[in-house]
Design brief:
By secondary structure, the protein is an alpha+beta fold. Helices cover 43% and strands 12% of the residues. The chain has eleven helices and seven strands. The protein has a four-stranded mixed β-sheet with strand order 1-5-6-7. α2 packs antiparallel against α4 and α6 crosses α8.
Length: 284
């Protein structure tokens, strides 16, 4: 009955999570509703998230990519939109290309076509007008094996024909979403190259000599004179009193695996050499 219905409605409303918007809104993607993958399946705007960033894509609709079907397709949204915009602008400013695409020969039709195309090209470069220009000009897009097929509205270009034009552009390049990496571990007992750790120690001794040569200057004044970062100078100065045993291990390439350039720079390193050696994993 109505009373029970109303009590349930109020209970559900009280338990509902807070929302920033009263209703769900469609994602405002420039090419929404226009794209299909190589198998004719529609592609829709979607996104993925990391801890600090959101990534927008166009992807084959999940309900059209069932197990056993060809794999779905995904492209970065901004990259694909930029790719299409650049090629459209080139076409609209290319009178020979427009003439070949339209097949027009009559001078009046060509003048109208070129003028309209020029106005659309200007809109593609204006913030707030590019999306409207693209959605009015492009009626459909399809990914093919070796190109992107775009259907252009002839009516939007003031053409006298009702037949839309098929136009092909190269596929946009993209990075793989999962990169294969080969990790090569050093053989047991092999010495690791000291690499940039030695450069770091040498730089620390250079800073120490700078400080000792100018005792009248504070570290801030010295950093200003040398046009260097005061924080970095302070870290390097602290490293210049590194334990000789640690320095020798770095020179030989036998330092512990966890001893890195970044670790040396950011750690709270004690003054006592024995404490340093324990902190960095040297046996007593």
């Amino acid at each position: 009955d109505e009373e029970l219905w109303e009590r349930v409605r109020l209970a559900l409303a009280a338990k509902a999570p807070p929302r920033k918007r009263p209703t769900n809104e469609r994602q405002q993607a420039m090419l929404r509703g226009l794209i299909s993958d190589p198998h004719g399946r529609p592609m829709v705007p979607t996104y993925g998230s990391s801890k600090i960033k959101r990534y927008a894509y166009y992807e084959t609709r999940k309900d059209r990519a069932r197990p056993g079907d060809p794999p779905s397709l995904r492209f970065q949204r901004a990259h694909l939109e930029r790719h299409l915009t650049v090629h459209l602008e080139q076409l609209l400013n290319d009178e020979y290309g427009l003439r070949r695409l339209s097949g027009f020969e009559e001078a009046g039709e060509l003048r109208t076509l070129f003028a309209t195309a020029h106005l659309l090209a200007v809109q593609l470069r204006e913030i707030g007008k590019a999306e409207h220009a693209i959605r009015s000009l492009v009626t459909a897009m399809s990914f093919r094996a070796d190109h992107l097929e775009v259907i252009l509205s002839s009516a939007e270009l003031a053409a006298t024909t009702d037949t839309d034009w098929s136009w092909s552009i190269p596929l946009p390049t993209r990075r793989p979403f999962r990169e294969s990496r080969i990790r090569i571990n050093a053989e047991a007992g092999a010495q690791r190259s000291p690499g940039d750790l030695l450069d770091l120690v040498a730089e620390a001794f250079v800073v120490q000599r700078l400080v000792l040569a100018s005792p009248e200057l504070s570290l801030q004044q010295l950093a200003k004179r040398e046009r260097r970062c005061r924080t970095q100078l302070a870290r390097l100065l602290r490293l210049s009193w590194l334990s000789p045993r640690i320095v020798e291990a770095i020179a030989e390439g036998s330092q512990p695996k966890g001893l890195t350039r970044r670790g040396l720079l950011i750690c709270a390193m004690p003054i006592d050499w024995a404490e340093q050696e324990r902190q960095f994993g040297f046996a007593t």
